[in-house]
Amino acid sequence: MSNAPAAATTTTTNNNNNSAAAAEKKAKKAERRRRQQRRRRANKAAKKAAAAAAEAAAAADDDEEAEEEPVAPGPEEEEKPAAKDGEDTVLPDRTFLQRLLQQPQLRSRLTTMRTKT
User: Fold this and answer.
1) Which of 17, 20, 69, 96: disulfide with 92, CB 3.0–4.6 Å?
2) Strand, helix or coil for residue 110
3) Which of 39, 43, 54 is nearest to 100 (CA)?
4) Contacts of 70 (CB under 8 A, 6+ apart)
5) Quick one: which of 56, 43, 58, 44 has its CA closest to 110?
6) In which residue ranges is the amino acid composition biased (Acidic residues) (predicted)?
7) Cα–Cα distance between 56 and 1 in angstroms, integer?
């Protein structure tokens, strides 16, 4: 009879240990999920900011072009085919990139992306 309480105590201890391990695992999983969500939100904000900056730069370029005289494209200036989805045909200029780097959120994202590649 003395073995029965000892076995019950061991089982209870194991259950407590397992539940503690399960709780710790759950907490780690929740923290990982929170970090991923923060990362996703930061990426989304960075994309929106980059898109807004690109749009502002395009609007500024359009304003500058509107001030200049319209010139018909010459024989060497052929129109390039339209870009596929997700591709840019125009590379951003250096000042535009420098302006992007002035924004703290984008700077951290760009520097981490640069170090990963």
Assistant:
1) 96
2) helix
3) 54
4) none
5) 43
6) 60-79
7) 82
